[in-house]
Write a structure and sequence with these properties.
Layout (H helix, E strand, L loop, with lengths): L4 H85 L5 H17 L1
Length: 112
């Protein structure tokens, strides 16, 4: 059985063309996957950075909240002391009058 050399060469050439196309497609797919991987890595790094910044912000806000709570309780203690002193200096004055006066005073301080 004799093989037709021209047909065999044409078959090999077609096979070579097919393999080159497959190789180009594989390279193209690999390039696309590389770009996607790089993009995912960048997004992951950005998310990690944003998460860190958010954790820092939350920690700062927690610290501010603790300071505000401390200030609030300190003000409450000062208010109670002022009420007790007021009771001694003005025994007939009602607590509502003292609180209203303090509220007006604090409002004025806030506005200033």
């Amino acid at each position: 059985m004799e093989i037709n050399k021209d047909l065999y060469i044409e078959l090999l050439q077609n096979e070579l063309i097919y393999e080159r196309i497959e190789h180009k497609n594989t390279l193209s797919d690999l390039e696309i996957e590389t770009k996607i991987g790089e993009s995912l890595e960048q997004n992951t790094n950005r998310i990690i950075q944003e998460k860190y910044q958010l954790q820092q912000f939350v920690a700062e806000q927690d610290e501010k909240l603790k300071e505000l709570n401390t200030d609030f309780f300190d003000l409450g203690d000062l208010l109670m002391e002022a009420i007790e002193e007021n009771k001694k200096s003005q025994p007939g004055q009602k607590l509502e009058d003292v609180v209203t006066g303090l509220d007006d005073f604090l409002q004025k301080q806030y506005e200033d």
